């Protein structure tokens, strides 16, 4: 697991002697065009405004997305609950159709496969079960009848009234504004500006900044897809793929926003994003230099095509980034179409994860309420939390353990704790990158030729968490001392 030989493959191409071509930004033709520039600026400002711009609302500071969510729930909370139930049914039924097709139990025509997008819903048998079980949990929670065990305020009151309602609003609505950032130039603008720091800090090509930005603005699955695409074309070697997926494909703005909403932290959402990204970058800079990541061989699965090493001044890079953004905006869909696609993609993502979140969250809360399971599991971390002066150390430790199972679980367990504890938990769970309800199995399946294995991912998760705990504590105490929380 630790030795480099465990990843090596004689059929793959060694990249140790590959040297990138040296280029200057002056070699790139930069054209200024008014309409693409305006299209980029409108989408970039709109997307950034709804997610990151602090505004005053009803006596407190929050973000426009939170206000939009409040309008919707105030207009009809019942309609939102119906939407939750429909999403649960859609996720369970479409997953079942997909799995039965791939098992050969049923055979769908090519037209029906495209209609149902069955490849999107394919998963492992445990997660198939989670999505189906969620229907049988969601129906009694919606109608308010059934076993008192799951209808109790400490279970349904959190899982349904807080977690489910938040997810089905934040992710689809957030998808609108994230897509404006990701599809109309924002992704290229941010990624290009980050290129000069990628190699010296993280030993990655500059193009990796685009994959990272895709994960943060879209989702980790989008980041994986981009990484896989470049990997197959010889743009990344195995080590670079492993680093990108396990260090930079962390929680996206939409899901961090959902967690912030669950914990009633949207009024400091821009601060949370800044803290989480700082923690992510610090941990990445450390982990790329130590095993197991440093032992992954620099092998390619295709003819190596390393990125040219661009040189230029800060102003030249800014113009270069604007040029890349304008090209993407010019080739992209109209703004309204990008917004609609973002909502659709966000709704699909919600349908894919909602059942898993409901089932796992219910099980975790039942275990937490009726057994000492998580207390035992988190016990070794409690003295660490106390030594770092984290309020409610038991709950903080439990939330960190829960976050490794499923991203939203940590947030659920931290409901009702001190604001410093909530901020601490959000930083860690958002930056853990590896959780076993979705990202870990997706990495293992998508990058089987690297190969990524659960034992390696578990080790990296432990290392990430061990580094994140003191970093998150320092950041939390720092912002508290400044009076920001």
General description of the model:
The structure is a single chain. Helix content is 69%, strand content 3%. The protein has 485 residues and is mainly α. The strands form three sheets. The protein has a two-stranded antiparallel sheet. Strands 2-6 form a two-stranded parallel sheet. α1 packs antiparallel against α8, α11 packs parallel to α22 and α19 runs antiparallel to α20. The longest helix has 36 residues. It is globular, with a radius of gyration of 22 Å. It starts with 12 loop residues before the first strand and ends with a helix.
Architecture blueprint of SSEs:
Layout (H helix, E strand, L loop, with lengths): L12 E2 L7 E3 L9 H19 L2 E3 L2 E3 L1 H12 L1 H26 L7 H7 L1 H4 L3 H19 L4 H4 L4 H28 L2 H17 L5 H10 L2 H13 L5 H11 L4 H10 L6 H19 L11 E2 L8 E3 L2 H18 L3 H36 L2 H6 L3 H6 L5 H13 L1 H7 L5 H13 L7 H8 L7 H28 L4
Parallel strand pairs: 2-6
Antiparallel strand pairs: 1-5, 3-4
Helix pairs in contact: 1-8, 1-15, 2-3, 3-6, 3-8, 3-16, 6-16, 8-13, 8-16, 9-10, 9-15, 10-11, 11-12, 11-22, 14-21, 14-23, 16-20, 19-20, 19-21, 20-21, 21-23
Helix content: 55-70%
Class from secondary-structure proportions: mainly alpha
Radius of gyration based on Cα positions: 22 Å
> Which percent range describes the beta-strand content?
under 5%
Q: Let me know the average pLDDT.
A: 85
The low-confidence runs, each spanning 5 or more residues with pLDDT under 50, are none
Supply the number of helical segments: 23
Largest sheet: 2 strands, antiparallel
User: What is the rounded distance between the termini?
Assistant: 42 Å
Strand order of the largest sheet: 1-5
SSE succession: EEHEEHHHHHHHHHHHHHEEHHHHHHHHH
The coarse silhouette is globular
Give the strand tally.
Answer: 6
